[in-house]
Design goal:
With about 210 residues, the chain is an alpha/beta fold. Helices cover about 35% and strands about 20% of the residues.
Length: about 210
């Protein structure tokens, strides 16, 4: 995908806080189109790399909700530094012909819910467990406030099962979700989607294959 210099201006505005997100269509064109988030699902991730599991999850979630799907990549990370410009463009190139991408500066889902009011977020059970862990909020009360703010922004979560901690978990296996918050998290049935490999494992496999060919 050729990236014209004008795309840098969109990215500069995002980095400087002049915009909350950039829409990149499936042909790779940057724009600031206003989107009706109430008719959308958002699959957030680092996409390092984008793999068939992401694509299959997007298709299943689209079929379940009948909404317009978007991948979402944040230029910031909850635990890491801001992603470099070169790395951002590298990851965006993966999506050409595969779907629309939203590039944002939102690290946390409470921030995302302010930007994408009315959207459904598609996540894995491992991330769902973290979202419901009070340690990331400074206590139970702040966790409750954050989830209720996500609710007030008319957002909710569609949760795919994931293999972690030596077993497969669905949203129903996560004991740290308080009953009063369960309504925010809908399960994707295991018979519709199951993925036992992570992006980290795929990166390691790719590196091993590269070494084998050297």
């Amino acid at each position: 995908m050729n990236i014209p210099n004008k795309n840098d201006n969109y990215l500069i505005d995002l980095i400087n806080g002049k915009s909350n997100y950039i829409h990149i269509d499936r042909n790779g064109y940057f724009n600031n189109t206003k989107i009706d988030w109430k008719n959308s699902i958002i699959l957030s991730g680092s996409f390092n790399p984008l793999h068939k599991g992401h694509e299959e999850l997007k298709e299943i979630a689209t079929e379940m909700t009948k909404r317009k799907p978007y991948y979402e990549l944040s230029i910031k990370n909850a635990v890491k530094l801001t992603i470099s410009t070169d790395e951002i463009f590298k990851r965006i190139r993966q999506f050409k012909g595969k779907g629309d991408v939203i590039l944002s500066d939102a690290k946390f889902f409470i921030e995302k819910s302010h930007i994408y009011q009315g959207a459904i977020f598609v996540i894995g059970a491992d991330l769902c467990q973290e979202i419901n862990n009070p340690i990331y909020y400074g206590g139970e009360e702040e966790l409750k406030k954050s989830l209720m703010k996500i609710k007030s922004n008319d957002c909710r979560f569609l949760v795919a099962g994931r293999f972690f901690n030596n077993r497969y978990h669905t949203v129903n296996d996560l004991v740290n979700i308080r009953n009063e918050h369960r309504f925010l998290f809908e399960s994707i049935p295991e018979n519709l989607f199951r993925l036992d490999i992570s992006s980290t494992e795929i990166r390691l496999m790719n590196k091993e294959q590269e070494m084998d060919h050297e």
